[in-house]
Write a structure and sequence with these properties.
Elements: H1 9-14, E1 20-27, E2 36-44, H2 67-77, E3 81-86, H3 88-94, H4 96-113, E4 121-126, E5 141-145, H5 148-151, H6 153-176, H7 182-185, H8 191-200
Helix pairs in contact: 2-6, 3-4
Pfam families: RNase_HII
Cofactor: Mn(2+); Mg(2+)
Function: Endonuclease that specifically degrades the RNA of RNA-DNA hybrids.
Length: about 220
């Protein structure tokens, strides 16, 4: 199957309405363990005229071996990037959608902390639901777009940056909890992960509010 590379067509149109885009994509929403992460990539009119980096795709379409180099190129390509996090405890406390909003808000704030002005910014969000506005303390203009991670290069950049960051974090957690094989499954519901949960119970990094024992196998 031919994979079509993302473009900047939508970004260029939207940048006629605003000075800056903050493109967001989430990683880890369906995992049983570990945080959710939201990647953010800033894009301005000057950046939207630059060539899209080689190999940039939605993170799900990039092999694990190639993701770090693609993420590095993506981060160097955009004016600013960041990853926001919400812990498994926060997922348990406030639910997955609000946790995504917290992670997204933190990613946006991290862009601001790099000195990026967002007074006339538009948030370009992958998906069909705005989970950002209800959480972020300052009003934001948010444009959800289905399949933006596949079609919009700036969102693809946010996607692969967040994916590499979260995978790295899960590999670090694996060292303290090797039985769950988070270095392989990254906290998702693989068969070996669920078998380890049945044998050992939950770790402090699992989302204990979820019906984990009956979760579908995703690998």
């Amino acid at each position: 199957m031919t994979v079509v590379a993302p473009t900047l067509s939508l970004e260029r149109r939207l940048l006629k309405e605003c000075d800056l885009l903050i493109s967001l994509d989430e990683v880890g929403r369906g995992a049983l363990a570990g945080p959710v992460a939201v990647g953010a990539a800033a894009m301005d009119a000057a950046g939207a005229r630059r060539r899209v980096p080689d190999g940039l795709r939605d993170s799900k379409l990039v092999t694990e071996r190639r993701r770090p180099e693609v993420a590095a190129r993506a981060a160097a390509w955009v004016p600013a990037s960041a990853v926001g996090w919400a812990s498994s405890a926060e997922v348990d406390e406030v639910g997955i959608m609000r946790a995504l909003g917290l992670a997204a808000s933190r990613a946006v704030q991290a862009i601001v902390d790099q000195g990026v002005a967002i007074d006339n910014a538009l948030v370009l969000l992958d998906g069909n639901h705005d989970y950002v506005s209800a959480v972020h303390p300052v009003p934001l203009r948010v444009r959800p777009v289905i399949k933006a991670d596949r079609d919009c290069a700036s969102v693809s950049a946010a996607s692969v940056i967040a994916k590499v960051a979260r995978d790295t974090y899960m590999a670090e957690l694996h060292v303290g909890h090797p039985a769950y094989q988070w270095d392989r499954n990254k906290g998702y519901a693989s068969l070996e992960h669920r078998d380890a949960i049945r044998a050992l119970g939950l770790s402090p990094h699992h989302r204990s509010s979820w019906a984990i024992a009956d979760a579908p196998t995703l690998f």
